[in-house]
Amino acid sequence: MNNNGLELEETVKELGQYFKTGKTKSVTWRKNQLQAILNLVHENEDAISKALYQDLGKHPVEAYRDELGGVEKSAQNSLDSVEKWMAPTKSNIPLLFFPAKGEVLPEPLGVVLIFSSWNFPIMLALDPIIGAISAGNVVVVKPSDQAPACSSFLANTLPQYLDTNAIKVIEGGGDVCEQILLHKWDKIFFTGSPRVARIVMTSAARNLTPVTLELGGKCPAIFDHLSNPSDFKMAVKRIVGAKWGICSGQACIGIDYLLVEEKYSSEVIELLKKFIRKFYGDNMVESRVLSRIINKQHFERLCNLLKDPLVAASIIHGGSIDETNLFIEPTILLDPPLDAEIMTEEIFGPLLPVITVNKIQESIGFINSRPKPLTIYAFTKDDTFKRKIVAETSSGSVVFNDTLVQFLCDTLPFGGVGQSGFGRYHGKYSFDTFSHEKAVMHRHLCLEIEPRYPPWNKFKLEFIRLAYRFNYFGLVLHMLGLKKHN
After folding, report:
1. Is the pTM for the entire model greater than 0.85?
2. Domain count along the chain
3. Where on the tree of life does the source sit, at the highest rank (predicted)?
4. Which one is catalytic: 62, 67, 171, 214?
């Protein structure tokens, strides 16, 4: 659609008017839209894979694992559960208010704005849409212009499947984002960088619009010593898969750096190299297993991280680049300077610093000296150490002895804390994110709590005091005693 200011204003107005008709609140409408998303994915798998390869060089298997499969799972789960989610839930009402009943009723927020990111341009657009639709909202989605093939696919294909009166796709760059943020929204859901998130929050604050921010940060992996050789091997295998096997490290939940005891570092590094060769081969371009860097700008940013002479000196594996095809070889660095940019900024690429410590318990202090990450990964069988990690660190999530799986677990909330974002989604949590839980209380006119009204006296003060201090059965007994005494 055209993105001039007047048309955008008209689009927002029309969405608001359509929402007021109440059509999107019906379970039939919600289920029809969720089924339509399933149909879209099933009928366009090849087209989606092609777009993902054009933008990011993703192999079709990686595209399905990280994007299409996740969308299918999310849409099917919502389709199966939405009727239950949208039903009112009963709430216990204190005996003091008898006779009364209460319930919590989820209601849609209204006109929702979703900004998706370029690294998972299909998943991070459609998954929030699924949550917004499940909750009964109307939606504007703004795909990232840095993944143009996927953005074009969404703009051209969503109107063929979804209710065009309720779901709109707006394409464009930063100027379009600025125009969009001038309008009032009932909810903004943003996936991207902290820099842009600050702009989004500033704009949202003008209208007191609630915001969910899915950002990222430097997610660490803690590698405790695993005495069992098969456990040791499995842990390193999962680290390699999480660092390089998901969009070449261009993922907010990817491992940013690895913490390991110095005496075990050589063994860990040699095994890292072995799995890199096994997974990705010797020719990055021809194998088509490794995704490429999204564009020249991000490619140059990653190359610049390695230009610091002290950082370059810490490279112990990889480091070669293919500027023509925007590939960077899986690269391992051993103890780069901690004040270098590679250790102060999120890497978002195929570079893995390995940081050595004397005792693995020191990793907790190291993590706490930096902004809160989206996820902490820890490979350990030490239950005491696990408890310390959970109790003494703060992060969006903690995963023990695996990587990335938390993103696919709909029964757990996904989201950050502090600089890694705030708000949560996935499964029922997505429905909640795009809903308002309205409290509804029903009372009768047959009984009255007279002590709440003036004129005041000591008896009424005592009643109110007891109402706050005691459980309500105790209150009744006390008041019966008071009445008898008086």
Report:
1. yes
2. 3
3. Eukaryota
4. 214
